Amino acid sequence: MSLIRQLDRLLEAGLAGVTGRSPAELATYVAALPDEPHSVLAVHPTLATARHLAPLLRRHDKPGFVVDDLVDLEQFVPIAGLTLPDRPLYLIHEPDRGDDLRNWSPNEALPAILERGRTPLTVNEGISWLLQEPKVLEPNHCFMTIGSRKPTGDTLDARTPAIWISGGTGHDGPARRKAPKIGWCWAGNRHTWLGFASARHRAPLDR
Question: Residues 75, 150: contact at Cβ < 8 Å?
Answer without folding.
Answer: yes
